[in-house]
Amino acid sequence: MTSPLFPGPVPTRRTLFSSAAKATAVLAAAALTLSACSTGPTTPVADAGNATSSTAFPVTIKHVYGETTIEKQPTRVATVSWVNDDVAIALGVVPAGVPKNEWGGNPQGSTPWKDAALEKLGAGFGSAKAPVQYSEADGINFTEIAKLNPDVILAAYSGLTEEDYRKLSGIAPVVAHPDVAYGTSWQDATTIIGKALGKEGEAAKLVSDTEATVKDKVSQYPQIQGKSFIYGNLEPVKGDGVNVYTANDNRPRFLSEIGMTLAPVVADNSKGSKEFYIPWSAEKANELLSDIFVTWVPDSSTADAIKADSLLGQIPAIKNGALVADSDNTLTLSISASSPLSLPWSLDAFLPQLAAAAAAVK
């Protein structure tokens, strides 16, 4: 799955959104597929499961590109990007189709938390009721989504462009992100998707239960509380300097929610921005003042390279030994694309790393 998250957000976002020629070809393919599937899906798909209606339909959902009205409770759900499929599944709805997890996923293009939740619904991958999976390595997969003949497309957490939105709207009603691309919190994504699926009450409880689980786990690590942090991307081999995630991104948002504080140097330099990251020159790495610096790394040896780097090694938290360098892609994904399914899965592995860094704070 293509994303703005790894490894280096600028090129991946451009890859995702800038190929006009590819988009035109995809649109043509999607149109052909829509015509071909006018009498029904060409591939057997799972349905939306045993959804129970708690919302009076039609419902209208506002988003960054306007409003989408869903006339009746969806029964064939397709999702794009990350998070949206997790939320639907957590609400007891088995989508007709979901993107493969091509970064941070397991050999079957899924995640441990999604596998477990689908198994509970009797729809594990490989079973008759499993969702169809499609690749998003080259962007939104209009063709495969159209084949599913969905009655709603969930994209509450996504980076859909307006062009993407309009193309998808030719297939089914689309629930786009409400404001900032890839900036929807998991709570807001859950609330929005709950409304779209007629499960508002279940969504509210899911948010409440997940927040309670996070609070309980975090309470076991009081040393984390109040520590300032920067969540960035350090890759000394590429010489790209530093990318620092802003408050619009779910990574800093999660750390703030568990009682940590976004470093003033990041807050001040991204004030008013709708970007999810800011580039930062490695020449000014020593100005990135915080108690703890968190980054993902492609492998464990990169952490040593960061510490030894003549510029990156000057980041105050790194000099103090308060670096969290996560080389587990699945764990990184669980925080970066956080959902009611991924967060509970991640806490037992991630919080001890934060606590160890907090213990090194001077």
What is the topology?
Blueprint: H1 9-17, H2 20-36, E1 59-63, E2 66-70, E3 77-79, H3 84-90, E4 97-99, H4 112-120, E5 132-134, H5 142-147, E6 152-154, H6 162-169, E7 174-175, H7 186-196, H8 200-218, E8 228-234, E9 242-245, H9 250-257, E10 261-262, H10 264-269, E11 277-280, E12 292-296, H11 300-308, H12 316-319, E13 323-326, H13 329-336, H14 342-359
Helix pairs in contact: 7-8, 8-14, 13-14
Could you walk me through the main structural features you see in this protein, from its secondary elements to its overall organization?
- Mean pLDDT is 86; it is low at 1-53.
- α8 packs parallel to α14.
- Helices cover 38% and strands 14% of the residues.
- By secondary structure, it is an alpha/beta fold.
- The strands form four sheets. Strands 8, 9, 10, 11, 12 and 13 form a six-stranded mixed β-sheet that branches. A three-stranded parallel β-sheet has the order 3-6-7.
- The chain starts with 8 loop residues before the first helix and ends with a helix.
- The protein is globular.
